[in-house]
Amino acid sequence: MNYSKILLTVFLTALTSAYSSFPSTHIDWCLYFQRLQIYKPECKFYDDVDLHVEREIRAKPISPKPSQYSLQIQMQMQQCSAHYMYCTANYQCGEGQLRCIDMIRYRECCTPIRRDCPPVTHLNFRCIVSEPVSWCDEDRDCHTTPQQKCCPTGCNYNICI
Fold first, then answer.
1. Contact 95, 110 (CB under 8 A)
2. DSSP codes of every residue in the chain
3. Distance (Å, whole) CA 117 – CA 108
4. For 55-77, what is each residue's pLDDT tens digit?
5. How far apart (Å, rounded) are the C-alpha atoms in residues 158 and 94?
6. Which residues of the chain have pLDDT under 50?
7. Distance CA 99, CA 41 (A)
8. Distance between CA atoms of 21 and 18, rounded to whole angstroms?
9. How far apart are CA 19 and CA 15, in angstroms?
10. Between the CA of residue 17 and those of 5, 49, 124, what are the distances in Å?
11. What radius of gyration do the chain's Cα atoms show?
12. Of the candidates 111, 110, 106, which has an alpha carbon nearest to the alpha carbon of residue 52?
């Protein structure tokens, strides 16, 4: 057995002993990378991971009583750029918004749930297929995607977003 395999075995044993409630010696893939402090965008939905997260803090006054002032600190995640993925509903984003990973800035962000398809120019597709096949014909065909919308690409086929 080489040195790196021994280290990995010791590391995994230490991790699994820390989580004794798990009956097996297997750990979640995202938890493994979290403990190694390796950033994986598809694993960003663990609330205790703070790698590559940018947040802004705003103080918001609560209706003050005479002679008593207090501030409510509200954590707000920044809005997504045009290219984001891995969206899920989450308490950190307000109602009507999804928590996503901004693929340009590599950070968590919030984006409104889309009611309409984005403009074709925003999708930025290059038409290289001679006989395109649509992924969907209507919104109900898109039940596994975050926005559950069937949208045109401008290349003679539709995609789910």
1. no
2. --HHHHHHHHHHHHHHHHTTTSSSS---HHHHHHHTT---GGGTT-TT--TT--EEEEEEE--PBTTB--EEEEEEEPBP-S-EEEEE--TTS-TTEEEEEETTTTEEEEEEPPSSPPPHHHHT-----SS---S-SSGGGGTTSSS--EEE-SSS-EEE-
3. 22
4. 444 555 555 554 444 333 345 67
5. 29
6. 20-23, 46-57, 66-74
7. 12
8. 9
9. 7
10. 18, 20, 48
11. 22
12. 106
Angle at 52 between CA 144 and CA 39, to 5 degrees: 65
What tokens does 24 get? 């097996």
Q: Which two tokens stand for residue 156?
A: 């003679």
Cβ-in-10-Å burial (0-12, 13-18, 19+) of 110 comes to: buried
Residues forming beta bridges with residue 75, ordered by sequence position: 57
pTM of the model: 0.37
